[in-house]
Design goal:
single chain; five-stranded antiparallel beta sheet; 24% strand; disordered N terminus
């Protein structure tokens, strides 16, 4: 509220009275003493007292006037500020005084109702305007009086009320009213809730409709989670009717706990398949155990559901109890046999229509005996269609025959459909003397027809729902059944295909298809795999044909199923390729580690030799040895990047900065005939990872593109932000998760990559370049970098049309961070260092380097010996340097033993791998530093100085 608090804090009625009292007291106190000093006699003193009093009245009156005027100005300003704020509120507000006259409405109130302040008057005038219906107006007024009286009695907040209000334009809106007392005024806050109420009503209606649908469905609706045990997370009330359990009894239980062990094992295997590759399923028959111990046959259908991030969370579906249906189907078979052997209902009447005879079946069928049927009016009174019955009787008695369906009205009022076959019978002279009717009860037959139609419809729906091609042929190789998938694959309507042979539609292959049909008919089954090309894609299809014999007719049929396994084979191939790459990576990592140890000795002794000689030629030779060893170390680094031996500690990396750095390096070696273009179009470009690895990945791809364009060309680097969904992650050989990524595309228009070698390009040492022009480790390092960063690399290329490599890095939620490194470090130092390494030449070399730097060195050949030496000489040892991989006891265990013996001991780890998970744990346990093998003299010196400097701090 925009009111000057400094004014209202003091100029209140209480503060004015206080000021008046203080001024009066001070005046009386000091003026009395002044008068006593001035007055020379009593008369003069009396006059001075009179003047003093008059002056006091005048001055205090003036002071009181000024204070009250100031107070009234402040209060008026406060009111103006309050009403100004109310006028700007986005909520409709109205105020009325104690006489219930409306004294203020804000602009939002005018916008809502259309009335200005002059047009509303009092609250009761407003009731007459807003609620034209008298009974509704009286209800609103009664609520208002009740709320007012309740507030006056208890002081509680007025309840919120919602009424239908007529606006000035004649339309009506639902408005929510909130009322309260403010400075002896009534304040009303009003909100248009018309659309909100409509939305709530629609939502409630939708929820109620869904609830009724679930609760009144004859099927049991359920939901399971993503676990292979199919644990129920929801069950509709219908489960009580089907299995006897209350819904809350099933929630948290496995669906397989309701089955016998054999059934549970069978269904568990099917469900595990569905969980691995979530997809809709339907018509799965399974047997469950009712709570009372009886068995129930259920037909299950369902579909997977996903959360808002596209992650699979389980299945939702329904179970239909088909126990009774199966029982009915079995019963129908028995009924059919009984109907075929049962006596029909027979009745005989004379020429006048008098019933003469009814057999027992007739009596049981209709409920009438002879007397009862005659009392009903004879045979014609039995049928519901009297006119048709009279026609039938006249036809028969005139010498004809009649056959057709009729409806019989039983004695209990029920209608029975029958098949009536009626004819006359004559005396010995051939004269018609009566009629005979044979009634076949059509009730069961009609039920059977309906069941058969339903079963046929279900069967048709089931086979048409199959994605695979399904067909049935007769012995003449003519198609008698085809599902929708088959018709779609052939490209013709079912009516055009039924009755046709393969030879009529596929002349080139008809003979071959007929031959496999015959094999299936003779041997019982036949299966083969067919490979074909469609729309530029190779498809692998397994065609299975089985023999089916109709027991009723003895006819033989060929039942066929074409299962497209192309996607499954592709996924298996991706898995094999991924496993092969992991195996190669493990081998490459082991080789690189051992090679790094050897290079450590080469570099170390070469640097020591360089320190010991003044001969320029020898120094030149030594320099070449060191340079060559460094190049070899770079190769091992690429091998380690491919093998992912130890993920480096991730840190925020600006991908655009890494690309810019790579391009700066590239510009010094790229052919001027190659045009390099960089388009950083990604808005978010920060990932968690290793800056150098990302830079090298981009650089390696660019170098490959450069080599693919010996005559020049176009090289583009483009970044973009993309969203990767769950389906893409599932089909990828990389371990990526759904989410936002930055894509780096390196694209060239060079000679491209032969499709035959596409799957080999990421293997270490695989290269198509001439000897001496490539190591075959560039793309292998890129592959390892993407694995290391939980990303993916994809490649598209065709010979003669260039190549495109896409790197996908998951985005980070943090900003870029840059670490500063102090390079000015004094190489020499003092102290005693205990060094453990299982390679003798590395121990000797490292000792000479460290002693040359001024340190005393104690050597040990494994972790156990190192710990024993430390126990004896711990007081004189200032630093321990451990190799990670050693026999007897490794460096990790040795570190833990050393810090247990003497907490706070400075320990440095040296390894041929980059920082792996073990070393990260050691760092959290107090490890002081890490240096990667092979290391140079200056690198080990700098690392030791940093450790000692941290000790000084």
């Amino acid at each position: 509220m925009d009111i000057k608090k400094s004014s209202t804090r003091y100029l209140t009625p209480a503060s004015i009275a206080g000021i008046y009292a203080v001024v009066g007291f001070v005046w009386i106190w000091y003026s009395d003493r002044l008068v006593e000093l001035i007055a020379s006699n009593q008369d003069y003193l009396s006059h001075l007292q009179t003047y003093k009093g008059s002056f006091y009245v005048i001055m205090t009156a003036l002071l009181l006037y000024l204070l009250l005027k100031k107070y009234s100005i402040i209060k008026a300003k406060e009111h103006r500020n309050i009403f100004d704020i109310l006028d700007r509120l986005p909520v409709a507000v109205a105020i009325c005084d104690v006489t219930e006259k409306i004294t203020f409405i804000n602009r939002e109130c005018v916008n809502l109702f259309g009335y200005e302040l002059e047009g509303v008057g009092s609250i009761w005038d407003w009731f007459g305007i807003a609620y034209p219906d008298e009974s509704y107006r009286e209800m609103v007024a009664a609520n208002y009086r009740q709320d007012l009286e309740s507030y006056a009695a208890t002081g509680e907040k007025w309840p919120e009320r919602t009424y239908e209000v007529r606006l000035k334009d004649g339309s009506k809106r639902m408005v929510e009213f909130s009322s309260f007392i403010f400075n002896n005024h009534f304040m009303f806050a009003m909100r248009d809730v018309t659309e909100e109420n409509r939305f709530k009503a629609r939502l409630m209606e939708s929820e109620e409709r869904f609830r009724l649908l679930v609760e009144t469905s004859s099927d049991w609706i359920w939901e399971t989670d993503e676990r292979p045990d199919a644990v129920y997370t929801y069950a509709s009330p219908k489960v009580m009717n089907i299995l006897g359990y209350a819904p809350e009894e099933l929630v948290g239980k496995s669906a397989f706990s309701l089955m016998n062990p054999e059934e549970a094992e069978k269904m568990r295997r099917e469900y595990e398949t569905l969980v691995r590759n979530p997809q809709p399923f339907h018509g799965i028959i399974n047997v469950n155990i009712h709570k009372d111990g009886t068995e129930r046959v259920l037909e299950s259908s369902g579909a997977p559901y996903y959360d808002e991030n596209g992650v699979f969370r389980g299945f939702r579906g329904m179970d239909r109890d088909i126990t009774e249906r199966q029982r009915v189907e079995d019963e129908l078979l028995r009924i059919r046999h009984a109907i075929e052997n049962a006596n029909d209902a027979i009745g005989i009447c004379d020429l006048e229509g008098k019933v003469l005879y009814l057999n027992q079946t007739f009596i049981e069928l209709t409920g009438y005996d002879v007397d009862g049927l005659n009392a009903k009016g004879g045979p014609t009174g039995l049928y519901t269609d009297a006119a048709r019955a009279e026609e039938m009787l006249a036809t028969v008695l005139s010498g004809g025959e009649w056959s057709g369906e009729m409806a019989v009205s039983r004695s209990d009022g029920k209608l029975v459909p029958v098949l009536l076959r009626a004819s006359h019978f004559a005396d010995e002279n051939g004269k018609a003397i009566g009629a005979i009717g044979v009634h076949t009860d059509m009730t069961e037959l009609k039920n059977i027809r309906r069941e058969a139609d339903s079963a046929q419809a279900f069967l048709n729906a089931a086979i048409n729902a199959m994605k695979d091609i399904f067909f049935v042929k007769d012995e003449d190789h003519r198609w008698v059944v085809l599902n929708d998938a088959a018709c779609e694959a052939i490209g013709r309507a079912r009516e055009e295909l039924i009755g046709k042979r393969d030879s009529e539609l596929f002349p080139e292959n008809g003979e071959e298809y007929a031959e496999t049909d015959m094999i299936a008919l003779e041997k019982g089954s036949h299966q083969r795999e067919v490979c074909s090309e469609a729309n530029g894609k190779i498809r692998h299809v397994i065609i299975t044909k089985s023999r089916f014999i109709d027991e009723a007719t003895g006819k033989r049929y060929i039942v066929g199923l074409c299962n497209d396994i192309s996607e499954r084979l592709a996924m298996e191939e991706k898995l094999r390729h991924s496993q092969k790459m992991d195996s190669i990576g493990q081998l490459a990592g082991g080789i690189a580690h051992d090679f790094n140890n050897m290079l450590g000795g080469v570099i170390g002794y070469a640097e020591l030799t360089a320190l010991k000689t003044d001969d320029e030629k020898i120094a030149y030779y030594v320099k070449n040895i060191i340079d060559t060893a460094n190049q070899a170390a770079d190769l091992t680094n690429k091998l380690l990047a491919f093998s992912r031996k130890g993920k480096s500690q991730p840190s925020p990396v600006n991908v655009h900065s890494a690309i810019e750095s790579a391009c700066t390096i590239l510009e010094r070696s790229i052919d001027r005939r190659i045009s390099l273009s960089v388009r950083n179009e990604a808005e978010d470009c920060v990932v968690l990872g290793d800056y150098t690895l990302i830079q090298n990945a981009v650089l390696n791809l660019c170098i490959n593109s450069r080599d693919a364009m010996p005559e020049g060309g176009q090289l583009d680097i483009i970044t973009a932000n993309v969203e990767i969904d769950a389906a893409t992650c599932m089909n990828s050989v990389f371990n990526i998760k759904p989410g936002r990524y930055i894509k780096i595309e390196v694209r060239d228009n060079g000679h491209g990559i032969d499709e035959k070698i596409m799957e080999q390009i990421f293997e270490p040492f695989f290269t198509t370049k001439e000897v001496g022009k490539g190591t075959g480790l560039g793309l292998a390092a890129v592959y390892g970098t993407m694995k290391d960063h939980d990303g993916a690399v994809m490649v598209r290329s065709s010979e003669g049309e260039g190549s495109s490599f896409e790197l996908y890095f998951p985005l980070a939620e943090v900003g870029e961070s840059v670490a500063e490194i102090d390079s000015d470090v004094d190489l020499c130092g003092t102290g005693t260092i205990l060094l453990a390494d299982d390679e003798e030449f590395l121990r000797s070399c490292s000792r000479d380097i460290l002693e040359g730097l001024g340190y005393s060195v104690i050597l040990s050949k494994n972790g156990k010996e190192c710990v024993e030496i430390f126990k004896e000489r711990q007081d004189e040892i200032d630093l321990v340097i451990l190799d990670v991989i050693m026999p007897v006891m490794n460096g990790r265990d040795a570190f833990h033993e050393i810090v247990r013996i003497k907490p706070g001991t400075k320990v440095l780890v040296a390894s041929g791998f980059t920082k792996n998970a073990d070393i990260e744990h050691l760092m959290s346990d107090g490890l002081c530093g890490f240096i990667k093998k092979p290391y140079k003299r200056v690198e080990i010196a700098r690392e030791i100085r940093e450790v000692f400097n941290s000790q000084i701090k």
